[in-house]
Amino acid sequence: MANYTASLMHGNRDAEGVRTFEGPEDLMSQSPVRVMRAFMDWVDAHSGLDHIDFELNAAMKSKDGKTVTALGNLIFDGNSEQPFICMITKT
Length: 91
Prior knowledge:
Elements: E1 2-10, E2 15-23, H1 32-46, E3 52-61, E4 67-76, E5 80-90
Antiparallel strand pairs: 1-2, 1-5, 3-4, 4-5
């Protein structure tokens, strides 16, 4: 397992945070959508909230493959949507 850092900013709650999470050693070689899914699976398991879903509007990887940027909406409690931006790198 390897450590990754995610910087997540989202809308209505004026929330911004940096989280470190574990994932497979080769996570950054996977698609940007899979990288974001790995982070959201970790958030879902560790947030202490009910299930947090998300929809992606865009997910891209930097030219050097070291950073994933994702844009979309977080969905809380099945109906409260908040826009987000997330940047993920290997630590």
